[in-house]
Each structure stands twice: as C-alpha cells, then as structure tokens.
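Morning run. Coffee first, then this:
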Amino acid sequence: MKTTPTPQHRLAQFTSFVSQAWALTRPYFASDQKWQARALLAAIVVLNLALVYLAVLFNEWNKLFYDALQDKNESVFWAQLGRFSYLAVIFIVVAVYKFYLTQLLELRWRAWMTRHYLQRWLSNHAFYQLELMRFANPPLPTQAPGSPATPQRPPDNPDQRIQEDINQFTSYSISLTMGLLNAAVTLASFVGILWALSGGFAFTLGATEVNIPGFMVWMALLYCLAGSVITHYIGRPQIKLNFEQQRLEAEFRHHMVRVREYSEAIALDRGAAVEQTQLNGRFDRVLGNTLALIKAQKSLVWFTSFFGQAAVVFPFVVAAPRFFSGAIALGELMQISSAFGQVQGALSWFVDNYSSLAAWRATTDRLTSFEASFKALSPVNQAQAATDFDALEGTDLHLALPNGVVLLDGAQVRARAGERILLQGPSGSGKSSLFRTFADIWPYASGHVQCPAQAMFLPQRPYFPNGTLRQALAYPHDTAAFSEDDMRQALTQAQLPGLTNQLNQEAAWGQTLSGGEQQRLAVARVLLKKPRWVFADEATSALDEATEKIIYKQLLALVDQTQGTIISIAHKPTVAAFHQTQWVLEPQPEGAPARFVFKTLAAQPC
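And here it is:
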C-alpha cells in the first residue's frame, strides 16, 4: 500500500537535499582556487544586481514614455527614446559579461571537481574496489535518494558521474542559485513599486466598507502561490524519472563500449545478434523512460504555458477599472503591468524552473551516492610493511570473496629471495585473490603482509593503453626512462622481434595483438624494467609449449641476475619444470576455507 509522505517527511527530504548540495559545493569554494572562485561568484552577483536595477529603470521609463505618447508630447518622447538607447547599451554589456563570467565559473568549477573526483577514483585502487563491491554481499551502506543510510550497490558507471553529472551539477547549481537570487532581489525591488502603484481595492461586505491596500501585490502573491503548488504536484514525478534516465543512458553507453572492447571475441563467437538484442533491450528501456519523462513534462508544460499566458493579461484585467475610470493614465497602467510582471516573474521562479530543479535533484543524488561510495571503501592490507623488505611474508591471512565466501583463514606463507615457487589449486580456491593481496589491492583480506620491493605482477590478461607501442611497453612509466635499444632488446627476448620497428606506431594494442602476443608484450615490460620479484598469474596460458619454455628461461635469467624470486600461478604441468617449491591450495569439505600445503618439486631439466 502506497503511503503519502507527511509534511515533516518532505521537510526532512528537502533539508537533506540542501545539505547534500552544499556538501558537494563547499569543497571548491574552500579549495586552493577559492579566491578566484569567490571573486567570480561575487562579480556574477554584482552583475545580477545591476540587471535588476536596470529593470527598475526600465519600469520607470515605461511610465514616462507611454505618458508622452498619450499626451502627444514630442520632446519628452524623443528624450525618452534617447534615454532608452543608453540604458539598452548598458543592459547589453552587463548581460554579455554576466553570461561570460557565469560560463567561466562553471568551466573552472567543473574542471576542479572533475580532477578532484578523478584523483579520488584512481587513488588507492578505488576504481578497482568499486567494481568489486558491486557484487558485495550484503550491499554497501551508501547514501541513496531519500534514504541517507540505506544499503545500496556502489554507483554504476563512475565514468558518467565524473563526465556528465559533474557538468550538469555545476551548471544547474550556478544557474538556479543565480536565478533564485535574481528573483529575490527583483521581488524586493518591485514589490514596493507595485504596492504604491496598485492603490487599494474597496468593496462592501454587508454593512462594512473593506479596503485592501496594495491589492495588486496580494493578487500576484495568490496567483503565484497557487501556481507553485499546482506545479509541484504536476511535476514531482520528473525527479525520479530524471534520475532513472541518467542511469539508463549510462548503461546503454557502457554496453556499447564493452562491445567495442570485446569486438574480436564477440565476432568469433558469432555474438553480434545477441549483442544487438541486448542493446535494443537497453535502448528500449531508455526510450520507455524518456517517453514517461516527456509525458510528465508535457503535463507540466500544459500548466506553465497557461500560467504564463494568463500572467500577461492578468494585471490589465485587474487594473482596467481604474484606467477606464480615469484614476490612472496609460503610462501608469503600463508601469503597473511591468511591475506586476516583475513581481509575478520573481514569485514564479519555482514554476518556471521546476524541470531544471528536478534534473538538479537527480544529479545531486547521483553525485552524493558516488561520494558516499568512497567513504564505504575497505582499507587494503592495513599491516602492509615497508617496501624495502627482501622477502614475502604473510601471517594469519584471512581472504574472502566479495560475496562473503571465505577462501583462506589463518594461512601462513613465506618466500625468500632466490626461490622459484609455483602456486596451484582448483579454480576458485583463492590463488589470484592471494596474489592481489600481495599486490595490496584486495579489500577483502586481513592479517599481516610484508611484500618485497621492486616487484611486478603479470596478470593473465594484461592492459595496454591506446597509443604508441613505446608507451604500451613502458606503461605505467614515462617512455623517456628507457632507451630504444633496451626496448628493442626486451621485445626480442619476449619473442616479439617483428614489433621492434613499430615502437612509434599508434594502435589499440589490446585489440590489435593476439592473446599470446599480449602476454609476451607484458613479459617484455618485465624484461625491460628488471624487477627483483616477479608474480605471474597464468601469464603464459596463451603460449605454445616451446614459446613458453623460452619465455620462462628469460624470466629465470632475469631473477637470477637480480637475485630475486619468481612466484607463478599456472595449471599447465609444463610450468612446474621452472620451479623448485609448490604451494598447493587444497579445498576442504563442506565449503571450508582451503588449506595451504607446501611441497618440494623434483628437479627437472629446463
């Protein structure tokens, strides 16, 4: 059964929204750019006030100009036209610079917020943890619209939060805030003028003579109050629809990006038809929500259009009896109409901006939940020791999956320089999670870990940035740190001699190269950077046996040269020949955590 929110609940929601918007706004205006930001904001406020003052002057000009027309006073007519000319020039200059400075503040604010959130997203592996936590069980206690501490999944599509939502938030925040300020100052400036011009409204109620002073002011207030209430009840579905629209658009765009990233695999699987069906389904949901939003906006446009058109003639209807009785002249009637329009426009700010307010609310909610997700991140390997430790130690290790399944409990591991270790176990037993713990990126681990310095991790599916091969090989370091000869040598040792003359060629290497070539290019990175410790997670799974043998010989020669260690995860039995010690994760019955078993491998010829 659907319950109607109480006024107290609505007030609490509004207060929460204002607090959220302020929490997102305050950091920029308190940052290292605060003085430039505050100066720009102050200039925009001054220009807004100047525009209101010019509106007061134009209102006064209305009376003088139309009285001159009514009286056929040619000299006053031409004098007022001249006055209008310089007022118009001043108005144009102020309006242009108000627009320019407003856009400049929006741009600088967006730039600061974007860099701020990019830094937070990319720091401490937050981007990685957020993806993991989408599968956490139970969900994270993040902040959601209308529920400050409700368990929610981490925000979808952080790319959209950073790229689109920040842009909309800064734009709506400035435009709506300045619009509200302009409305408040306009109301304060014109309500006295309208009060003085409108006179009183007298009528007889029974035997009592009633006179209402400032009648036009009260009529404007009642007119706009009724319009605001009706607008809210007609337009409030747009808040939820705007929030949902941004989410659905982001999911549709994200799925298209995935099709592009996995284009080869999809083509090989003949999966284009399935992807088209899924994309069509996602787009249908976008269209469905868009249609619902359009219908909601149509209902609001029906009312606001009627409201706006009625406001044009409303002051003339109310003031017409006084004009036709001769109590006021044409100029005063036009001044009353102008003043009423300004007061009505100020009081109708909520009506005129409801759709923008709904979009702002949705954007603020999305950014607030994004902000809350960072606070919900788990600390990673709290006992991580100094990086100059020349051994790998893990004591009382507790590892789990995002869904809460325990992989290891109370495990002890130790590896010294010079060892060759092979880590094996059934799929899902926790091998890769253990490597991630050693790499200091796994948030679902506890215990004491000391990881050696100068370590590199080789995943089964490496990442290569789009750009030159030189950049892909040096990643994540600057290409200037390595000579061209060293790069060519590393490619040759990794069995990629055909790429030695393509260092300056740009390509999407993650898609251009085969799986085996990508793994060999990742090995070339290791051979180029010469770490002391190498952690390889199925790093040669796509290679044939002969090439794998050459690659492992190169890796062993490297760690021998650096007096380091190699620890490998591999299912292929041929890899065992390159290791001396075996760590085995043996699954236990009834879903209990795996047990560590240490074995010595028989010496085999390499």
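The radius of gyration is 35 Å. Good start to the day.
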